[in-house]
Design goal:
Membrane topology: Multi-pass membrane protein
Number of helices: 11
Helix content: over 70%
Order of helices and strands: HHHHHHHHHHH
Number of domains: 1
Low-confidence stretches: 1-5
Keywords: Membrane, Transmembrane, Transmembrane helix
Subcellular location: Membrane
Structural class: mainly alpha
Main location: membrane
Protein name: Yip1 domain-containing protein
Radius of gyration: 18 Å
Largest sheet: none
Mean pLDDT: 85
Length: about 200
Amino acid sequence: MATEGMAREGMTIRVLGAWRDMRGTMRAVLDGRPSETALLVFILVSGLLHFLGSMAEFWLDPRSIGLEQGEALANIYWLGIFFFVVRTIGLYMLALLGHLLARAFGGRGDAYASRAAMAWAALVAAPVWLMLKFLGLSLQGEIGHEPARAIGEFGYIPFIYALAHCFAEAHGFQRTWAVLGVIALLVMMLFSGLMLLSSS
């Protein structure tokens, strides 16, 4: 089967190699037609990496979320619920939204292609996010709390980059930068809305 071929090649190598040719690896994923279960595993593995990075932050810097260390550790259960349940559902909802937007702009991919693009982007971006999270935590004593935390937050940029390339390939868009621009605009609108809600 196609998914078995992907496993033989080595998923770790495929994930790391995706940054050399993001659209090419996305095309390989689509050609392989991994099952819905495999796509779910992609998302859950990415959630595991996010969970580990956030758990490390809770342990090393619990005051970053306004808690003492004991309180932070007590909330690890809820952290797991967020990354393995809430985040997973959220990514599927974003895949549906992305699919509808892509089709509105002339995209040719089906709903499966959109889910595959979201799952693959989440998987390949998660190790970069984790690396930047640990880098920020390791530099906290030298550059201060806020700059160190900002380094970790930059980890979401690779996800946006990967998502743009994956959706562009999944829907047959030639101009990846245009897809990236639309996603960046939507993210800015989302953050602006959240800031307005928090200030009201």
